[in-house]
Amino acid sequence: MNVSTWAVRKEDRLARFMRIRRQTLALCAGLSAEDLMVQSMPDASPGKWHLAHPTWFFEQFVLGRDPAYRAPNPEWHYQFNSYYESVGPMHARPKRGLLSRPSLDEVRDYRARIDEAVGELMERGVDDELAARIELGLQHEQQHQELMLTDIKHAFWCQPLHPVYREALPAESSAASLLMHFMQGREGVVEIGHDDSQRFAYDNETPRHHTWLSAHALAHRLVTNSEYLAFVRDGGYHDAGLWLSDGWATVQREGWQRPMYWQEDLASEFTLSGICALDPQAPVCHISYFEADAFARWAGARLPTEAEWEDAARGLQIAGNFQESQRFHPVAAPRGEGMLQMYGDVWEWTASPYVSYPGFKPLPGALGEYNGKFMNGQWVLRGGSCATPQDHIRASYRNFFPPHARWQFSGIRLGQDR
Amino acid sequence: MNVSTWAVRKEDRLARFMRIRRQTLALCAGLSAEDLMVQSMPDASPGKWHLAHPTWFFEQFVLGRDPAYRAPNPEWHYQFNSYYESVGPMHARPKRGLLSRPSLDEVRDYRARIDEAVGELMERGVDDELAARIELGLQHEQQHQELMLTDIKHAFWCQPLHPVYREALPAESSAASLLMHFMQGREGVVEIGHDDSQRFAYDNETPRHHTWLSAHALAHRLVTNSEYLAFVRDGGYHDAGLWLSDGWATVQREGWQRPMYWQEDLASEFTLSGICALDPQAPVCHISYFEADAFARWAGARLPTEAEWEDAARGLQIAGNFQESQRFHPVAAPRGEGMLQMYGDVWEWTASPYVSYPGFKPLPGALGEYNGKFMNGQWVLRGGSCATPQDHIRASYRNFFPPHARWQFSGIRLGQDR
Amino acid sequence: MNVSTWAVRKEDRLARFMRIRRQTLALCAGLSAEDLMVQSMPDASPGKWHLAHPTWFFEQFVLGRDPAYRAPNPEWHYQFNSYYESVGPMHARPKRGLLSRPSLDEVRDYRARIDEAVGELMERGVDDELAARIELGLQHEQQHQELMLTDIKHAFWCQPLHPVYREALPAESSAASLLMHFMQGREGVVEIGHDDSQRFAYDNETPRHHTWLSAHALAHRLVTNSEYLAFVRDGGYHDAGLWLSDGWATVQREGWQRPMYWQEDLASEFTLSGICALDPQAPVCHISYFEADAFARWAGARLPTEAEWEDAARGLQIAGNFQESQRFHPVAAPRGEGMLQMYGDVWEWTASPYVSYPGFKPLPGALGEYNGKFMNGQWVLRGGSCATPQDHIRASYRNFFPPHARWQFSGIRLGQDR
Amino acid sequence: MNVSTWAVRKEDRLARFMRIRRQTLALCAGLSAEDLMVQSMPDASPGKWHLAHPTWFFEQFVLGRDPAYRAPNPEWHYQFNSYYESVGPMHARPKRGLLSRPSLDEVRDYRARIDEAVGELMERGVDDELAARIELGLQHEQQHQELMLTDIKHAFWCQPLHPVYREALPAESSAASLLMHFMQGREGVVEIGHDDSQRFAYDNETPRHHTWLSAHALAHRLVTNSEYLAFVRDGGYHDAGLWLSDGWATVQREGWQRPMYWQEDLASEFTLSGICALDPQAPVCHISYFEADAFARWAGARLPTEAEWEDAARGLQIAGNFQESQRFHPVAAPRGEGMLQMYGDVWEWTASPYVSYPGFKPLPGALGEYNGKFMNGQWVLRGGSCATPQDHIRASYRNFFPPHARWQFSGIRLGQDR
Fold first, then answer.
1. Which residue numbers delimit the Sulfatase-modifying factor enzyme-like domain (chains A, B, C, D) (predicted)?
2. pTM higher than 0.90 for the full model?
3. What domains appear along chain A, each with residue ranges and CATH number?
């Protein structure tokens, strides 16, 4: 992890550390200790755990590098380790919702103590390796910010009272419907993967490498609720021929009839601001890979590959509807030229299984468990969402989820062979 | 439910109502909102739910009898109904741990409002039917007091930090070992079932009826930890011949090796006061029916029937180690004559499946769902435990749990054919 | 097992042995090796296994008593042991359908060899213990005859081609509808349990003992298809209030809408003679305990206890529609006085959980695993069915199945408190 | 499916049809109707089903093209359809083992009738489309030949008696150990996919397309039993760090300790010739993707991508240990130059998830369900095995199985980045 150059930023490193750590707490405003206890399914975690685990990460991988370091609460490590087998055994993931102890107040204190310790370390000065680990910890923290939002959304949806997380912002004047068109992509050998040694990237975005793009085109904007509704009304959930075999089995077993948070009336949906009317021009959201793939087939199209997506994103400005907008929900595409909504709003499912790039080397030691060991049975998503911090995303960023996962802010961009 | 006579008590009815309701809250002292959120298994419920559900019960069955009654939070009823199908649909039992809303504070307010409303009603005067329903509600509340204790014990045991609920009281000087002996019971036709129309009983304790007792004897005290340890050390958990077929399957599937809360060292156990040394003279506890039955077979004895137990309890004073002792753990038998430990310490598994008495009539309406519909696949337990309020138990009281249940304070008294 | 007196029979013992063993094979006429391979659910066994296992039983418990005995195929014992843990480990029950080896022909040879060996033994003369074991083996064989019929029925029902086992016999002129009436039973102390030391009984029918019967009456005939149809049409399967809690959960989980083999038209049913019109006067069949109990509640009645049933059966002739009729299906009650259809047609669910009688002693050794270890979670059925050999049944006979079991020929007789 | 050119072969089409169809039956020699009934797990099918289903395929897709065609047994189609949703509903896959009807004899007759009908059709002359469908049916038949062998192996392994399918052939003089070496592959743009319009290929092998190969090398032979044994002995199954996360979960859940058919002694294995000594020089076999991937990581290598494999196979002669050798088991690599064992012996797991090639078009209509709908959660295998007919395999052939599948003849070739 040669990240000596990460130090070269406009923002002061320590300020950045404190800003990101504070933002996590800011996202908890209005949530009670009880709200932050709920684990609504094995894939989700309680908010309190999202506060504690990245803190443990800093303790384990930053502070713990100093052999003289003494953890204030070593007995907590077992329950705040997520999946680092080489660090030690851990509490079973589906049972994180049972952890009433330590309390939320104790976890807040824990955060403060670790922040202070890391802050002191940074003020004393850190070597490149430590700087890199701190940066990794911050990126990791930001991932958990997004997960905290998607998990609390699911937790509130599972409750009969359907609580509101944040009051809805005033609606922007809804864009008139924009006809979708396809923009030609490059054919031939291209390079993808992380290319800027000045900036952070996860190991799974490296090494930069050649790949061949076939002739293709990508839709200039995301698929909207009204387009997806047409699929639903056309019987999309009842036509086996549109689905992958595993997808069809999931539709049958789970009784899927519409996107996850859509209400039965097909006119409203559950959001972090409660149940709201469905905006026909907004991107469809909380779609699994199976649904994205079936919709694309129904539409006579396909999903983009991750290389096609990344090549199309080359040179685009990273702007859009991110966590910072405080909307926590996708919005209609703005008027504009070129590829729209490539960043923000919703993660875009690609037709690429999540596997290693040629020549991939995981980080050494326990940090090597961060990404590489999940390279089975998942599909890549690109572009970030309305729950992603803007400075967390980049063209080479590879998110990944299993094909049935629906609780992330995930949607659809179409692609075509040419 | 002819309970006009229940009004005739020394204790003033309203004071009794307030005392029992307050006691439930008193049991929560020292537990946080987070502690009261945990649902550690589908059979258990969060503490907050135990606070809310009996309150709903008063609202539904007492206040709701007045057609003019307006519930302050009708939208809560769905999630605080337990299993009364005729009242309406309900939140799935295994998902009670997801309910962060209403908050603990709101639930406390809810309790206060309903207490006030019931209090006013009582002051205005209640008819017999209403008096009976209030009494049923209080008995129901007491049951949930006990469940709250057993559920929080399980919740704390499931957490890696093993919190302490209450500091242990100073140990009483442990009794010297008392040799177990058997006391002859009556043979012939006896009457069992509730017999005192002046006092409350559940419908399942009625009607009083004849039954035949074969020649038999019952042990004068409960089986102790040291006696059970001998069974463990003798390979009891590895000898299929000692177990019911379903019990053996459970032992294999669950990997049972010892009582639920015993530690691997066979010398200590988890209690509501944390991990403590095992008292050899104290009654063995947290035993399933399968284990009680296997132990009895190993010991060349059997479990008592519920009729044998009830006949033996006839005339005994209701005294022992109850909730009021604040020990929340069974203790060694006192020195004494006659049948010891019949009440309190641990519920005693009987050899009687939980079925209706001849001529049984459930309560009319939704209250009829209280007991009768559970008469399948469960076994009767008698005598109350260290978590039972003393004024809740009586000779005819029938508790019931499925044969694999271990998280109640349940233990063993032996019986014999003569 | 003092059965010396069993020798005193009109029928010669050896002839009886050969007759019963031959009858098992006769029931396989028309079934192919493939038909006899099918295991359609874990509770059922393949026909070939029903041929082999009782043969193993004779080998294990009769021939094996001679220390000099050498099994022809000791390597088969593992797979033909059912549940005798003390004899040795065994093949997993749900995987009996995988056993293509030994072949059906080899199993037939096995039967012939063991029959010859037992025959020789009997000709040389057997002591009381051995005579008793042979008799137990024959009773056991007869139980497997019945299971073979119910299991092949289920196996054929699971196949899309719905094969016919035996062509239907010409219908008897269907009886005109007989109004059900209730006949008063005895109140007071009675004796039940096996009482004839001259005749065989299982250990679970002993000892004969006193019990108290409350005032009651029993229906003079079984509940018919047309009566049960009224329950279905009245929404019986949609009214939670009629069901035990576990029963309602089963109805919901399994999607029960009608008796097991009834067709969706509610006018025909699958039988061992294929799909036939439902005879309105014939007893309803393939009913679980949950359904029998719900029906009784709907009808304002209850199920009989096993003691009530046995007392009513006292003195009745054992006659009815048994295996020997070759109908393999229940038929309408004949005209007649007194209690009708007490024997044959369908097993009658009772309100009695299957537990031991006071003073029960299982058989010594491995044979003690025959009955006692199943005394949990099951309900007693009485009277035998159209699949039971006539000489297998008696007033004290206790059959038992779990409350959800439907694939046996099981039906309903109503009882009442008086 | 433009396959007009497939007609141009040396072998007469009709003779080829008959030869392949007869070979399927030849593989059943020595198997009884009972053996051919066993379904030992949901992923496997009974041999009888493997005989019937490809026959149905000819009926459905070849004979059924003639509107005048009348199926002799239309009622069988439901149970012999595998997964063609657009053709109609089908019998549940995990319940194929329940189908005692039609009998094996009836299925053999069915095969004969359909063979005769197809033969007559071919003699009258078939158009290109029909010729292509017949060829597809034959390729499909060959796939089921291989599955029949792997399924019967599993079925026999599940039986306590471990039957022998075929007596082992005399061992060839075992090769001396050949040190594994790596051979450099090409770097740059290559073409892969089916390239010979004269010969059959599945739709998933098309279109031929460009792809980029990174610098790499492939092992010149397969991984042997002795090499895999070193991994086992080194604690490979106990080191989480070697495994994908899903793989480690599988190891834990399933208790994997060694390859599927290896005995506990690590010195013998179950084969189609019964339990045999493990040949140290023979390729390790019955390895899941998870195990192949973990072994490669342990060895400091990786698995080849399917493009690397296909490029390496370019120009190699298709020769090796196939079904025709009648060994039904992999053998040690022969001495020789260049890449060894690329064809036959064992399928080679690749590092490539099974997804569509750029520009992929499934076959039209129901035949489009053949391949495309399975493109999720599976990995590509290449090269064929000892159970594959030699004329069935080619360089572009893509087999695919989920990562936990072990019952195929699947093994490991290593690759490296260069």
1. 187-317, 336-414
2. yes
3. 4-157 (1.20.120), 182-417 (3.90.1580.10)
